[in-house]
């Protein structure tokens, strides 16, 4: 029997039929952001109530940059600070909140950025992705289906470095660790895509 969740709160469907992990949200540089995702299908579904939904809707926009951000959120939502902290911690543990933190523009803090791609044998994608994620200066990586005859790459990752030689060293470290060639695509023009998840608020805890 698979894992089960108990509780009276309403469930967000996160089973095997719900599709891949949702894309993370990107905020404009210099602002705090909250990245949300669906929980992996191998784990039990995420249980949320209407208060959780209100909280999730609120923290995706202009997370308070103040000494006590959860207290500020509590004031806005009519909740005690400790309850906001408890709920956010539970949502993080459940895997619904991926991270809370800043999104920086590498160029504005004196760093270089690049997108890189690899063609990874199907049986090695998970292990190679894990290896790449552990290498310093790699910010994140993701799998994409290759396009036959046009784009053979199926594992992509982004990285930042303080200088061109450091960027080259990181790419070399990836190739050495994975024993696979890497194609690097330096940043020439930036496009920012904002993704916001909407959680319907049903007017009361159910």
Give keywords.
28% helix; alpha+beta; two-stranded antiparallel ribbon; Alpha-Beta Plaits; elongated; 206 residues; Arc Repressor Mutant, subunit A; four-stranded antiparallel beta sheet; 2 domains; 8 strands
CATH top level label of the largest domain: Mainly Alpha
Could you say how many structural domains there are in total? Answer: 2
At the fold tier of CATH, the topology name of the largest domain is Arc Repressor Mutant, subunit A
CATH hierarchy: architecture of the largest domain: Orthogonal Bundle
Could you tell me how far the N terminus lies from the C terminus, measured between alpha carbons in angstroms? 27 Å
Order of helices and strands: EEEHHHEEHEEHE
Low-confidence stretches: 1-30, 38-42
- Count up the helices: 5
Percent of residues in helices comes to 25-40%
Number of strands: 8
Tell me about the biggest sheet? Answer: 4 strands, antiparallel
Give the integer mean of the pLDDT values: 79
How would you write the strand order of the largest sheet?
A: 6-7-5-8
Overall geometric form: elongated
Our estimate of the beta-strand percent is 15-25%
Radius of gyration equals 20 Å
């Amino acid at each position: 029997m698979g894992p089960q969740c108990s509780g009276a709160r309403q469930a967000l469907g996160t089973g095997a039929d719900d599709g891949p992990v949702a894309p993370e949200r990107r905020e404009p540089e210099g602002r705090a952001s909250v990245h949300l995702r669906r929980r992996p299908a191998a784990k039990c579904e995420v249980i949320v109530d209407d208060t959780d939904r209100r909280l999730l809707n609120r923290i995706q926009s202009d997370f308070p940059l103040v000494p006590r951000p959860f207290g500020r959120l509590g004031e806005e939502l009519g909740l005690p600070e400790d309850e906001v902290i408890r709920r956010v911690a539970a949502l993080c543990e459940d895997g619904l909140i991926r991270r809370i933190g800043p999104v920086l523009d590498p160029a504005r803090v004196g760093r270089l950025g690049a997108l890189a791609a690899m063609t990874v044998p199907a049986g090695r994608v998970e292990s190679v992705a894990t290896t790449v994620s552990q290498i310093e200066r790699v910010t994140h990586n993701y799998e994409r289906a290759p396009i036959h005859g046009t784009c053979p790459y199926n594992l992509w990752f982004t990285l930042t470095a303080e200088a061109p030689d450091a960027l080259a060293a990181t790419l070399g470290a990836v190739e050495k660790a994975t024993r696979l060639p890497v194609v690097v695509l330096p940043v020439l023009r930036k496009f920012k895509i904002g993704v916001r998840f909407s959680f319907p608020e049903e007017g009361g805890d159910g």
